[in-house]
Design a protein that fits this description.
about 300 residues; alpha/beta; Rossmann fold; 2 domains; three-stranded parallel sheet; 11 strands; about 40% helix; binds NADP nicotinamide-adenine-dinucleotide phosphate
Amino acid sequence: MAKILSGKELARTMREEMKIELKELKKKHNVVPGLAVILIGDDPASISYIKEKEKACNNIGIFSREYRFPGHYQEAELLDLIKDLNQSPQIHGILVQLPLPEHINEEKVLYAINPEKDVDGFHPVNIGRMMIGAPCFLPCTPAGIQQLLLRNDIEISGKHVVIVGRSNIVGKPLAMMLLQKKPGANATVTVCHTRTKNMAEITRQADILIVAAGRPHTINAEMVSEGVVVIDVGMNRVEDKTKKKGYRLVGDVEFEAVSQKASAISPVPGGVGPMTITMLLHNTIQAAKTSAGIKN
Ligand code: NAP
């Protein structure tokens, strides 16, 4: 039976470590990291994400300020708000919850965030820096996946990592991160997508298989080899009338069957999800330290 790679447990450990660091920061430097979270509209999933982020900040001692506006909020107003937050000394990280309403240009908004406060790691300056291996904010989900592997003592160097999915927030940055000539990386990386031919032939070659397709049942037991490490990034809501909410969360991997062959596997929920928020907290602390001139 596979080892369960619990993001929930690791997130708890890392947040305890951060609590200690935050106390030190306050005591020695009088620094309290601050995160601004902006939400436009009333998408229930987005509301629940920002609540979770806010709670996580408050639990460990990061100051968080929520900005919520109705769906008709204008792009110019949003850009003005970002300009103010870019200048604010209390705010070290700015997060704009995606997706934005159609009348707002997502690219323009994300590019308006000062790269030094871009704790989501979506600004092209940070993406470019990541690509060349320079210091930067790493995007939270890929960074969380890397930590989940490393802190479970799973060697990445020299391994064949197969990633299913090439989105700008998961697949592509993750491929770039694991390819770096750096500790915690040095993998041989293959990225699959919907135009990949004979995907099962490729996924069976993986030492580490990371699946971010956003479709349940993307990976079944026939598509993996014995001993593979599997990270399931997918978060899919499937109808379930037995649940209070009317749905349950499932990943992209057929967990029961695949865990019979895998040496380790992350569950959904409780796998990558809690790690994503943890890395957001980490980035916000880093931003505050950098702005105060404090070295790691
Ligand atoms: P996305 O933008 O929809 O991208 C999905 C990618 O998967 C695309 O590149 C697509 O290929 C590929 N794909 C889809 N079905 C495939 C298949 N059957 N075979 C091969 N490739 C396939 O999704 P995303 O934003 O990366 O998110 C992926 C999943 O991760 C979602 O379930 C999302 O909710 C979840 N997620 C979780 C977290 C977390 O914190 N746990 C964070 C982010 C995302 P094409 O490019 O060819 O279309």
